[in-house]
Amino acid sequence: MIKLALRNLTRRRTRTILTILGVAIAITFTVGLLSITEGFISSFEQSTEERGEDIFVLPEEVAGHPMPMMESYGARFPEEYVGDIQSIDNVKAVYPVYTQTLYFGTGGKPMEDYIGLNGVTPAFLTELRPFLEVEHGRLLEEGDEYKLVVGSAVAEAQGLEVGSTLPPELTKGQGFEVVGILKSSGGFDDFLAYAPIETLQGLYGDQDKLTIAAVTVKDLDKTEETAREITEALPNVAARTMEELVSMMSDFLSMARAMHFSIASIALLIGVLFILSTMLMTVSERMKEIGTMRAIGVSRRTLFRLIVTESLITGLIAGALGCLGGFGLSKLISYAIAEFAGVAFLQTMVSPRIFAAGLLIALLIGALAGLYPAWRISKVNIVEALRYE
User: Is 180 helix (H, G, I), strand (E, B) or coil?
Assistant: First the structure.
């Protein structure tokens, strides 16, 4: 059956090739779009799994933001809450953070024009970010004022070196000396910079105000319970576990994945129509051949299987080519994101699951598009088929 189906397909090579290309493009588009959210979810999970904090305490108005270290949106809460949080039984340590976003306005790549500037204590980097290694210079130390440790992407985009100064116009007329440049972590941290928290609070007139408090706990099994205690104990703040933040981002990206698949469904529908039109045309052209086969004893069931097999083979070949094309498209998307947006750590990813989905979809396209032509040809009257011109 397979041998006969392949012979029939190769008899009309141009039409078969064009049909395969049409479906392959649809699968390429589908695999490429799904690789975006797959890669982004993987990048986000990788960037959070090494972090030391167990809970983030945030102002209520930004509690739904999945990346608190990137942007505070101007929301604040009193620094005196640190003592209240520390007094809760399961809390091990509290690390205050004050965040500002700086905009360089150089007209470069979008992500490279922004810096998440975090005011922290020296312990924040050594205890919560042990995976961040210094490439040049040093980390923040007690007693530092107007000093800066920058991520690798910040240093590269702005041409910063140890000893250079951040432009004063970005920070209320006060220059910050770069004392350390971090090695690339391949994550969000490459786009962050760190300064002494008291210096930053004073500079922006927010003494005794925080944007975030990072919390570690003694018993990880009670992390959710501790987060609820913090939320209930303090007004106008919300405590979110790291698992909640990861889940929020995953939910957001899952919605993006569903949207991508909805768009790709249009391309898949076109793929179905490609095969359907080809198989209907093939059936019409081979009517006399089908009549002859019926006359010499070939059963309707065999004819049905033959047409469906041809359609499935077309879908399978198109699916394989489409998966390879989708892999190439995903690499092109990664290059475009890095080149035009300046975000090198958000890489698309074609996982075995996406490959399997692409092949399965292609087979379904082949099966669905082949059923009607197969049913139609199996019902043809032998005499009418032999007289068909």
Answer: strand
Report the distance separating Cα 221 and Cα 227, nearest Å.
12
Contact in structure between 119 and 200 (CB atoms under 8 Å): yes
CA–CA gap between residue 284 and residue 290 (Å, rounded): 10
Pairing, β 55-59 against β 237-241: antiparallel
Report residue 97 as tokens.
């953070």
Phi, psi angle pair for 72, to nearest 5° = -110, -15
Closest C-alpha among 274, 283, 281, 273 to residue 17: 274
- Band of the pLDDT at 109, cuts 50, 70, 90? low
Q: What are phi and psi of 101, to 5 degrees?
A: -110, 125
Residue 327 is which amino acid? F
**Helices (DSSP H) in 95-210: which residue ranges?**
122-123, 152-158, 197-203
Convert the pLDDT of each residue in 3-30 to its tens digit. 877 777 777 788 788 888 888 888 888 8
Domain chopping of the chain, boundaries: 2-45+249-387, 69-210
Supply the pTM of this predicted model. Answer: 0.68
Distance between CA 271 and CA 318 in Å, rounded?
A: 10
Do residues 380 and 291 make contact, with C-beta atoms less than 8 angstroms apart?
yes
